[in-house]
Amino acid sequence: MKREARSEKREAGRVKREASSEKREAGSGKVLFLLPFCSPLPAPHYLAALLMVVLQFMAAGQSRADDYVFQSQCCTIHYSQASQLESFTGKIRGGAVSRTLDQLFVGGGRSSGQSDLGEVVDSLFKRVQLILDMPMPKLRVEIQIHRDEKEVARVFTQITGGSSNAPSFYWKRTNTIHTQPESLTVGMLAHEMGHCIIDHYFAILPPPKIAEMLCQYVDMEVSGTSGRGGRASVSHFR
Fold first, then answer.
1. Could you tell me if residue 208 is inside a domain?
2. In terms of Cα–Cα distance, which of 154, 157, 138 is closest to 197?
3. How sure is the predictor about 54, in pLDDT bands with cuts at 50, 70 and 90?
4. At 190, which CATH number?
5. Is the pTM of this model over 0.85?
């Protein structure tokens, strides 16, 4: 009987020690998570890293849950109001250059007023590739239409931490042209498309000044003027 009592007492002690050990482990807070390509991190550090990623995307202006989207073969256009897309369409359809682009790349001699917006932006994108002699038939680009030049400048600051008065710019990390219908021209849009094409065509990117000169040449070929597009200041951050 005594041996049985001692055995039960030892068993009770063992159970108590295991329970105490589990309680300490549960209260330690050292639950580990695995991030892709990272070493295990304690839960607080994991949450901090995740929060940083989320904030970076938000700061880059990539939260588009409330945006409308227009898709074409080569472009995805984001806008928040129908009037923005209407103004954007009017600016790039309105001139003789746009009509020439339609005739060259869409066919049928259709005027810009009759052609679909997707056909206009796609034909312009292909025209820029032809001017640069950099064919990339599978390349696509995102276009974010902002309210005005002030909003473009604000987004530029959020993304880069710098400042710029450029009315449009291209950001390679998200493959996005940021522009606005307030002062947009077809040459300006072609200029920024040029930056997109150059950045994807070369395995080793040319110096920023060389890329800017090429895009200014595209602008002049499309519109006959130097335009106001530009990304010289953005190039240093890409």
1. yes
2. 138
3. very low
4. 3.40.390
5. no
